[in-house]
Specification:
single chain; 738 residues; alpha/beta; GIY-YIG endonuclease; Arc Repressor Mutant, subunit A; Rossmann fold; 6 domains; seven-stranded parallel sheet; six-stranded parallel sheet; 32 strands; 22% strand; binds adenosine-5'-triphosphate; binds zinc ion; ATP hydrolysis activity; metal-binding
């Protein structure tokens, strides 16, 4: 009797496909989670087996054969398959694509792959102290980085290349030490992680404050079962120390820990702190790794040999058979939500996974999302607060600076310049926050006011001075700088407004005795550049830090005592109902970079609207008060988290088709328990040449949202124009500007 299996394959259809196990493979075991190679149309695809053998619904004659079973060493376990199926259902996303996204790129192909454990390096253990000292002396005094790398490995034990790189070292430095026979190269052991007391560097453990101790003990009472904990702790209150101490208890049970953070490349110090505490295999998962490195993380996690996986959002899919805890740090951060393709929220999936696998999950933030606060209010989550900074560091004071009535010099008010001078003269650092990359956000004609726009987006090009380019920040298109106005022919074109690139230049004129450094996506594009700049800031080589929100994220700048937000007005009048929440979070997070050591910090916020209630509330009463008020507003307006939202987006080369498409499917929908809003043009109606429309679904509960979404998808899939319009569904959308 031939056997048939349901298989998920990466095609844009919301269904699974049945295949036959051919005679020549019939002797083999086919477990749920096995990767297989199957024919589809005239292509060959990699799929994943979803079921035990099934009775086919189709005529067996029409069912195609599985071409090959791929190595068992790369298969998913049943737990993982169950989780991914739930993900696909929750987000109404094609199941094959969910599986494909959850696999490392190399496993989406049929090629032979190297599934060995990653290489790692440690100080040659066979060398005596005397030998070491002698060899160490052979490293030139001037080779400071080699010395430092050696010292790090000596302290740390074995490290993989991604770890070494993130610590700021190069392959050349590593190779130099290898050549001098100071290091032993081996593969990370593939044995399952087992805890031993000596793996914790207890000397680095901090004496917990009363508040911290309480949180650690409360969470520790809930290990080995599902529970969700929200740690609402002000910036610098020591959330990381709480994570570390709970992690230790989980590791002690020989279990694995998954830590999800919004960015890793941006915040290498998170990894340092883990390494300093735990001498266990820590594997990384983030966009700075190549495909091979990502596969190695996946594999050691899957084998149970990685004790800790530190990952960005897609790390939530890492298979970890002995998982005992998930931590989502900065749970409010919008980069935890994937904005294209499979649009999942990593925090929400972490909770779903924790529930399915019966383990605790910790969400941490100084500015929790309104969703999480609401869940805490409903007592779905355990709510923990950290209200103080350990030691004598105080939260920075915030002050609004009215710029509607005073002249600015390069965007800086007199009061701000004065405060900067005072701070700099004391030998302390200043951080200037401006969320706008480039030299100027537009180039305009002085005669006729024509603005040079991207034709594909109908938005102004941003002027990048260093590259002498105009770049569209919406679609990425670039062109050379125009010399002449296209409307009136005048050559009097000039930049309008100010971005970080310009600000950095101007500061050199204003503060001649001090050095400024810029941190944004442009200035840190080159590998290792960010680390270099952060290090130089720590060494006080720069006194003025200019940056975008890259600077707001989790950094610890002990000598920064003044933070200036140059322009926060954009968010005050946004169409997006989440804009005030995001702006409040950003403000508090940036402010949290000031005065983190013993020196008190100050935050100056420049605005044209100092009386705006949102700003007043934040500055006078803090985030908690703001959040309570914002939640009340959401409740009155019946917006999330008091309702459940889905969004159908459609786009096409003309404006008519997507609007008509959405209108058709919404008008064909009968008896929906949800309110449908739209179709309306997206806030950015045209992007990269496509016209875009929205249909919003608002349900009073999740069940009705799911039902309505399901029905709309069916209608869309049968619409005659379904191939002329590109459309997708976004459940719990975060960014309505798309
Ligand atoms: N119990 C403690 N005793 C002394 N110092 C502590 C203690 N806990 C944390 N710290 C120190 O306080 C500083 C801030 O801690 P940490 O970075 O963990 O804060 P956080 O809450 O994660 O902040 P943020 O939200 O801004 O990232 C660190 O330098 C940390 O070493
Ligand atoms: Zn564009």
């Amino acid at each position: 009797m031939p056997r048939f299996f349901d298989i998920a394959i990466p095609v844009p259809m919301r269904q699974t496909f049945t295949y036959r196990l051919p005679e020549r493979l019939s002797g083999q075991d086919v477990e749920v989670g096995r990767r297989v190679q199957v024919p589809f149309g005239n292509r060959t695809l990699i799929g994943v087996v979803l079921s035990e053998p099934v009775d086919p619904e189709l005529d067996p004659e029409k069912i195609k054969d599985i071409q090959a079973l791929l190595p068992q060493e790369s298969q998913l376990d049943e737990q993982q398959v169950k989780f991914l199926l739930t993900c696909a259902r929750y987000y109404h996303h094609p199941v094959g694509d969910v599986f494909s996204q959850a696999l490392p790129v190399l496993l989406r192909q049929a090629n032979d792959i190297d599934l060995r454990q990653p290489l790692c390096w440690q100080v040659e253990p066979s060398l005596s102290d005397d030998d070491l000292a002698e060899k160490l002396a052979s490293i030139a005094k001037t080779a400071v980085k080699q010395q430092a790398l050696f010292a790090l490995l000596k302290k740390q034990g074995a490290m993989t290349w991604p770890q070494i790189r993130l610590s700021g070292f190069s392959k050349a430095q590593l190779n130099a030490l290898l050549k001098k026979e100071l290091l032993l190269e081996s593969r990370l052991p593939s044995k399952v992680f087992r805890f031993e007391p000596k793996l914790v560097a207890t000397e680095n453990k901090l004496q917990l404050t009363t508040e911290q101790a309480l949180v650690v003990s409360q969470i520790s009472q809930h290990l080995n079962q599902f529970s969700c904990h929200l740690i609402d702790g002000i910036t610098g209150s020591g959330k990381t120390e709480v994570y570390l101490q709970v992690m230790e208890k989980v590791l002690q049970q020989h279990q694995q820990v998954l830590v999800i953070v919004p960015e890793i490349g941006l915040t290498p110090q998170t990894l340092h702190r883990f390494e300093q505490r735990f001498n266990v295999p820590i594997m990384l998962h983030h966009s700075g790794l190549n495909d091979g490195e990502r596969l190695q993380t996946w594999q050691s996690a899957r084998l149970g040999s990685a004790a800790i996986v530190l990952a960005t959002r897609s790390g939530v899919f890492t298979p970890m058979p002995n998982l005992g805890l998930i931590i989502v740090d900065e749970e409010h951060d919008s980069s935890l939500k994937q904005q294209e393709g499979f649009r999942y929220h990593s925090r929400d999936l972490a909770i779903l996974r924790a529930r399915q696998q019966q383990l605790p999950v910790i969400l941490g933030s100084a500015t929790p999302s309104l969703e999480s606060l609401h869940n805490a209010q409903l007592q779905r989550y355990h709510y923990h607060r950290l209200t103080q900074r350990p030691g004598n560091s105080k939260l920075a004071s915030m002050q609004l600076v009215d710029i509607s009535t005073q002249p600015l010099v390069y965007g800086l008010s007199g009061l701000v310049q004065q405060a900067m001078r005072t701070t700099l003269e004391k030998g302390e650092q200043v951080l200037l926050f401006l969320n706008r990359r480039g030299f100027a956000p537009a180039i305009a004609c002085q005669e006729c006011h024509w603005v040079c726009e991207c034709q594909r987006c109908n938005r102004p090009y941003t002027f990048h001075h260093n590259q002498q380019l105009l770049v569209c920040h919406h679609c990425g298109s670039q062109r050379r700088v125009q010399k002449q106005c296209q409307q009136c022919g005048s050559v009097r074109l000039s930049p309008m407004g100010q971005g970080t690139e310009q600000l950095e230049q101007r500061l050199a004129e204003l503060f001649t005795h001090y050095k400024a450094v810029r941190i944004d996506r442009d200035s840190t594009r080159r590998k290792g550049e960010l680390e270099k700049r952060l290090e130089a800031i720590a060494d006080n080589e720069y006194q003025i830090l200019v940056g975008t929100q890259m600077l707001a994220k989790g950094h610890h700048f002990p000598n920064v005592t003044l933070v200036v937000m140059l322009d926060v007005d954009g968010a005050l009048f946004s169409y997006d109902f989440r804009a005030p929440e995001k702006m409040a979070q950003l403000l508090v997070q940036v402010a949290g970079r000031a005065g983190r050591a013993s020196k008190p910090g100050k935050v100056l916020i420049q605005t044209h609207y100092p009386q705006h209630p949102l700003l007043q509330d934040l500055v006078n009463n803090g985030y908690e008060h703001f959040a309570r008020f914002a939640l009340m507003e959401r409740q009155q307006a019946m917006m999330p988290p008091y309702s459940f939202q889905g969004l159908v987006r459609a786009e096409a080369n003309n404006a008519y088709l997507p609007e008509q498409f959405l209108r058709d499917i919404s008008s064909q929908l009968n008896n929906s328990e949800c309110a449908l809003c739209g179709p309306v043009a997206a806030p950015m109606e045209k992007k990269a040449g496509k016209f875009r429309f929205h249909l919003t679904i608002l349900g009073k509960d999740r069940k009705s949202l799911h039902q309505t979404t399901q029905l709309l998808i069916q209608l869309a899939e049968h619409h005659p124009n379904k191939n002329k319009v590109r459309w997708h569904v976004d459940i719990d959308p975060q960014d309505m500007s798309w």
